[in-house]
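During the no-cost extension, the postdoctoral fellow (Dr. R.K.) reprocessed legacy sequence entries with the updated structure-token encoder. One reprocessed record is reproduced below for audit purposes.
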Amino acid sequence: MEQMDGLDVVGCERCDDLCDSRSRIVNGVGPADADLLFVGEAPGANEDKQGEPFVGRSGDVLDDGLRDAGLDRGDVRITNCVRCRPPDNRDPRNGELANCRDYLETEIDRVDPEVVVTLGKVPAEHLLERDVAVTGEAGDVFDVTVAGQPQRVLVSVHPAATLYDPSQRETFEAALATAAEFTDAQSGQSRLGEF
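Re-encoded structure tokens follow.
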């Protein structure tokens, strides 16, 4: 039996490969009314083990980038296009993305963020429904319709891109700075003193 319990998916068995490769369903984390909703592609090995998106090295980069933008991980919501780890950390297939789409749309609708930030090519193309040149479009904001509702989507490179190509760090940080402009936190510069 598959269903959503609030923002969490429980008991989904739509994708045979993903059900076989996961140890758990990895749901989004963060406030249910966050101004910023970050969307990655799928859980990796660390996420599958810990049950939380963006942990490990990519999570550290994301946390550092958020802090540099004057934000805190606890103030944003983080999720993925698919909630189960693909075998061998491959990209999720089109059918898997389609199978999980309504879960993502429901989460976006219920959180109703000021902006959705896509972390990498897969989520950007999934939500914008077109080819995306992530490096060239990073930091750009697009108005789209998600689940029948208008939504802003901000493109960003994946945090891991900065690990493999340090020149992407500036692009990543600039995208997060743009995202921060959509939050109430940006007006409270005293938050920076917390770090």
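Residues 185-195 have pLDDT under 50 and may be disordered. The radius of gyration is 16 Å. The remaining legacy entries will be reprocessed before the final report is submitted.
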